[in-house]
Amino acid sequence: MVESDKSKIDNAVSQLEEWLSDPRELGKKPSKVEYVESFEDEDGISCMIFKFKKSMLSKWMLGIVSESGVFSHMKEFDGGRARQDAEECLTFLKNYWKNLAAQQAGTENQEYEERKGTFSGFVLLSGKSWDKEQIKRDLKTDWGIDPEYDEGDDSYDREGDGCDAMIFELGSQRVVLGFMDVPVPGGEAEQNAAYNYMWKDAVEVTKTHQAQIMVAVLGEHEDVKQDGVLFVKLVASLCKQPNAIGVYTNGVVYEPKFYFAMKEFIEKGLYPLLGLVWFGMLRSEKGIHLYTYGMNTFGKDDMEILDTTEDIQTVKDFLIDIAGYCIDQDVVLHDGETIGLSADQRCRITKSPGVCVEGETLKIVYSE
């Protein structure tokens, strides 16, 4: 075994011992821990299998330390099915975090239409801690949002069950802030950080994140536009955490100072569209692809302008204006229509499978 592997195992043993020492688990360190094997699941999430004893005379139990967290079903270790049992533990962890926001709203995983209006993202942290008291202070100072509650309210701070969360309600809106002391699995955040053409160090900075705060705005979505404003407010305040290094949402990683700029937009009475929809650019063989990512949260189709050779900033501004118009006026564009920013401008619209984003998108043939 090379030294780096031994170091990883020793670190994982420490994590497992710390988790088992929690009063909600064993309440003490196990008497013995032994490494069994490692594997990656179909999503590329690394997982280490261990066996441990509660006491010297007790039976071996199975536990895992993974990129999705530490866990044990407290089942007896069976060498013949250790991998299968470990995969079940890992699946439990993945599903827990994946479904946290939906569970708090009393729903199961939802399809596209049911997810419409749910703004969510992750504030990436360079260290494995968050300061809930600072969050409360910043929300109060920045926006007059007081996440305090009276005993018996349906809003509460919660720790345990593999979760550290703040959950509170603002009218019909439910806010879920969930801390996870693991990076975004599978290098997903790093891969998507590469799409941020406005932040040259996005990938390198994102690689350093060790934990994350999930942010979600749930509820009845009586006004999806205001749900979006609330989401940006929450993210902007969370970016004041001293270890906040990025925001992963809309298929890209933003620099924290970007959301400070969105805070100024709101304070000036402007809608923070750029913090809710990503306006991306990709080079193609014939020119530049421009696209939106996040319109579906407003119940709209994402848009693409493909292979343009026009002035990029002009075309991007056009796309921002069209997206903003559709959201502000609640307009739904259809295949075969035309659209423009003046009476003389008529840009044809078609609908087909996306080139830059998944699903059906509206292709706008840009012309001045």
In helices, the fraction of residues equals 25-40%
Provide the low-confidence segments as ranges: 101-115, 149-162
What composes the largest sheet?
Answer: 7 strands, antiparallel
Classify the oligomer: single chain
Write down the overall mean pLDDT: 87
Number of domains: 3
* Contiguous helical run count: 9
| Largest beta sheet: strand ordering | 6-7-8-9-5-10-11
Query: Using DSSP, what is the number of strands?
Result: 17
Q: What structural class results from the helix and strand content?
A: alpha+beta
Estimate what percentage of residues fall within beta strands: 25-35%
Query: What is the helix/strand order?
Result: HEEEEHHEHEEEHHEHEEHEEEHEEE
Radius of gyration: 23 Å
How far the N terminus sits from the C terminus, by CA atoms, comes to: 64 Å
Polypeptide structure, described:
The chain has 368 residues and is of the alpha+beta class. The protein has three domains: 3-96, no CATH class; 113-272, no CATH class; 278-364, no CATH class. 31% of the residues lie in helices and 29% in strands. It has helices at residues 3-21, 82-104, 112-115, 132-143, 188-193, 202-206, 224-238, 256-267, 312-328; strands at residues 32-40, 46-53, 60-66, 69-71, 119-125, 156-160, 163-170, 173-180, 211-219, 244-249, 252-254, 278-283, 288-293, 303-308, 338-339, 347-353, 360-364.
